[in-house]
Amino acid sequence: MTKQAAGHGLLFMVLFILPIGSLSYSGHHSHADHHRHKSSFRRVLIGHDSDKYAVIFDAGSTGSRVHVFRFDQNQDLLPIGNELELYVSTKPGLSSYAADPQAAASSLRPLLEKAEAVVPIELQPDTPARLGATAGLRLVQGDAAEKILDVVRNLFKNESNLKYKHDWVSILDGVQEGTYMWATINYLLNTLGKNYAETVATIDLGGASVQMAYAISDENAAKAPQAATNETYLLQKNLKGTNYNLYVHSYLKYGSKAARAEIFKASRNSTNPCILDGYDGTYTYGGVVYKVSAPRTGTNMKRCQILTRKALKINAPCKYDSCTFNGIWNGGGGDGEKNLYLSSSFYWTALDSGILKQNATAGRILVNAYKDTAKRACATKFSNVISEFPNVQEDSRPYLCMDLVYIYTLLVDGFDLNASQKVAVVKDVKYKNSHVEASWPLGCAIDVMSSLTTKTLIENI
Description:
Blueprint: H1 3-6, E1 10-17, H2 34-40, E2 52-60, E3 63-71, E4 77-78, E5 86-90, H3 101-117, E6 129-133, H4 135-138, H5 144-159, E7 169-171, H6 174-188, E8 201-205, E9 209-216, H7 218-222, E10 234-239, E11 242-252, H8 256-267, E12 280-285, E13 288-293, H9 301-312, E14 340-344, H10 345-352, E15 362-366, H11 368-378, H12 385-388, H13 400-414, E16 422-426, E17 428-431, E18 434-437, H14 440-451, H15 454-459
Parallel strand pairs: 6-7, 8-14, 14-16
Antiparallel strand pairs: 1-2, 1-6, 2-3, 3-4, 3-5, 8-9, 9-11, 10-11, 12-13, 15-16, 17-18
Helix pairs in contact: 3-5, 6-14, 8-9, 9-13, 11-13
Protein name: Apyrase
InterPro entries: GDA1_CD39_NTPase (IPR000407)
GO molecular function: ATP binding; nucleoside diphosphate phosphatase activity
């Protein structure tokens, strides 16, 4: 995943390959053979111990990606060639084709062909296909997003050997993203399928929202409040044969890019103490342009923290036993929350600012590291930021103090972490002898596989 992709909404398709016999690949096939394959390869599915494949199409606003995973009957990852997944990407993303839905669907065609090429032809007709969209397409004006989805539906219905249903095209929301990230990281750590107390908690900081997820006890699950409209606190999930009460919440407007806008709103004027001294420009988010510059007195970390707490609504009334921020129930805590893994913008900010060594794909750090680095950043003039922080991306340089203060405040004041607590910050997680990206596509595939039962296999014969 690129830094740019980390903050964008995603569009994905999950293709789950059911075991129907031989895994040999017999070469390229034409779409004219589609219905012949559909009928000739349907056979009794029970009793075969062959491998399973999962293929995820993940298309965000910066580009589309395809992940192909191969699993054994125990849901352990197996190699595809020399890697643990096939990964292919293309640019631009679907939202770039708002005025031309046909071109949007066509941009997925090469990825579809490459995905099908590594899956045995005889397995494809019984492969259910599911497609979903998130904020990336929601930002497209009018009905353009739905038109794009309709054309993509036609692509998979008419030009693919994969099994298709209209209602498998749906919207992936933040709760699902948080669930899939939790499943991915616990899977890679080999804690998925174990007792909830042995699993780890995850916080994923995207661009538009931040998701927290962790497994909770039956006692805490019984105390879960009835969530308000469009809010979810608790999911019942069966993953790798184990039932979990999964606390998951997606905080809209509190992703790394969206939070900047919230902090600008909280300052109520064109100057902001979080902006590096010497910068004078604008910031655009959600179609709104904010004029931003440091006050005459310069950048001020303490005032930035006060403003950030205000943007997070730390002091909002809490109707429950305990809350995170903005009055949101915190899940009750417990063993499933003890070990914490941070991903996406948590990782990129740590890497770019020097908290993590360059080329590190993961690391364990103190929460305080964000605050210590914020002190340095907030004391740096904009004209010196390149020399002091050479790895920060150009479009993020004016906001380096703001971003570091926000992350620290979010973790300590928002999620009530101890500043001296050690957390894992990850892009990749070591799995067996490889490193696998900590992102939602793998978790999505695992969720689909875990929900598959013998009954549904029989129904599809």
